[in-house]
Amino acid sequence: MKQQKTLLNATGIAVLVILCASLPAAASVLNFDSIATGGTVAQVPAGYGGFTWDTNAYVTDNTYYDTAYSNTTTFPSAPNALYNGFGVPTITISGSPFSFQGADVATFADANSEVGFSSTTITIDGYLSSVLVGTASMTLNTDGTFSFLNANFADVDTLTLSSSGNGEWWLLDNFTYNGSSATPEPSSILLMGTGLIALGAIRKRARK
């Protein structure tokens, strides 16, 4: 009876190991706060976060944004937020296949209000090998406050972020993603293999 209980406990542990190995990796978040702006604005550095960034991808400092445009906005993750430099209608972000959960987005306001250069919407399209796999869009708050845009793209290698028109700006913070869900990480494969070996050993002992 004692041996049977020990085997049951060991079986439970092995199953738990396998289940843990199959869980998706925790999401990563790019908040752009490590980019040095000198208290104003800066271009997103090449390779930031492991991605290839459009040359018009810029970040602005929260204090500078509020002071220069008479806002009282607090970025979800201060001090920086991404924006479409020069008001270009679309910027592109690309990299090895990844899943994209979403991001905090807002219009680029003046005096806490939507104005002529404020984008009224933001649309994010996800592509894999140049094939469109998903679209997420949101009408932005007119007072410049942030809301989270859920995308939930499973596997993409390119994102396009588009405003409502040329010369219209948006803000983005907490870019939330993780690695490809199609291929398990090496550590997960090892963990799953360990669990399967343990189950095999338990069954062998049970037959004796």
Task: Give structural notes.
The chain is an alpha+beta fold. It has two domains: 2-22 and 188-207; 28-182, Jelly Rolls. Helices cover 24% and strands 38% of the residues. The protein has helices at residues 2-22, 62-68, 186-207, and strands spanning 28-30, 41-43, 52-53, 57-61, 80-84, 90-107, 121-128, 131-139, 147-162, 170-179. Strands 1, 2, 3, 4, 5, 6, 7, 8, 9 and 10 form a ten-stranded antiparallel sheet that branches. It starts with a helix and ends with a helix. The model is unreliable at 10-23 and 181-196 (pLDDT under 50).
In short:
Helices cover 24% and strands 38% of the residues. With 208 residues, the chain is of the alpha+beta class. Strand 7 and strand 8 form a beta hairpin.
Features:
globular; 2 domains; Jelly Rolls; 3 helices; alpha+beta; 208 residues; ten-stranded antiparallel sheet; 38% strand
Return residue spans where pLDDT drops below 50 for at least 5 consecutive residues: 10-23, 181-196
The domain count comes to 2
Count of extended strands: 10
Taken from the alpha-carbon principal axes, the silhouette is globular
Question: Secondary-structure element order, as H and E?
Answer: HEEEEHEEEEEEH
Q: Figure out the total of helices.
A: 3
Strand content: 35-45%
- Say what the CATH topology of the largest domain is: Jelly Rolls
CATH class value of the largest domain: Mainly Beta
Average pLDDT confidence is: 84
Specify the structural class: alpha+beta
Q: What is the first-to-last residue Cα distance?
A: 14 Å
Radius of gyration over all CA atoms, rounded: 23 Å
Oligomer: single chain
State the major sheet.
10 strands, antiparallel
Which architecture of the largest domain does the CATH hierarchy give at level 2?
Sandwich
